[in-house]
Amino acid sequence: xxxxxxxxxxxxxxxxxxxxxxxxxxxxxxxxxxxxxxxxxxxxxxxxxxxxxxxxxxxxxxxxxxxxxxxxxxxxxxxxxxxxxxxxxxxxxxxxxxxxxxxxxxxxxxxxxxxxxxxxxxxxxxxxxxxxxxxxxxxxxxxxxxxxxxxxxxxxxxxxxxxxxxxxxxxxxxxxxxxxxxxxxxxxxxxxxxxxxxxxxxxxxxxxxxxxxxxxxxxxxxxxxxxxxxxxxxxxxxxxxxxxxxxxxxxxxx
Length: 254
Description:
With 254 residues, the protein is of the alpha/beta class. The chain has helices at 3-15, 21-27, 33-45, 59-62, 70-74, 78-89, 104-112, 125-131, 156-163, 188-200, 238-247, and strands at 18-20, 49-52, 55-58, 97-100, 119-122, 138-141, 145-147, 152-154, 167-172, 176-178, 182-185, 201-207, 219-222, 229-232, 250-253.
């Protein structure tokens, strides 16, 4: 192991969101591509990067969320979040396998969830703690890297775990939704996890209060057409409504 080389790679990852293998090969012409790939794998194991095709993404930039901090969002629109959560509960049947996303709306859903036979998988440690107050649901918490801003777990370990389970109904909370960009989030790693959940689940139910409307964050994890139901507290804008109606997405006003 060359400590000097790895320190140089670490400094590069701290300065930019993506470092290509080709860039590293030019920086270290006397080092083999295989060794440089092992360097990338090392930084991934240290939680400093995510190995992607052609190089690595820096976790410094991935974990810098463009969303408001969790505690601030917890106090926003509490009545709307409760109405949305109560409307979501009407769609839950005993014995189902559920996925509960992270976020303040989902925390409200977890607190209101009936104490029934359910298998619930979540990426939110705080949501899991809320669920275990009930006696009947089986609670699975996804492991991985914790985002302090929204108390959510993501990363490669989380992706592997989600890939190994079956999901009947997934309750997803976007950070923003728009006709042009679909359902978006401010964190790349969480976006990749949400994408996988959307692929795995039989049914996708989106929970959002009206503050998310026409809000666009950097990463799209689903098109509006991939959703089965949207639960919100106010009517959707006309441009989103056109997409919803064309795709046969159900709208439930809380």
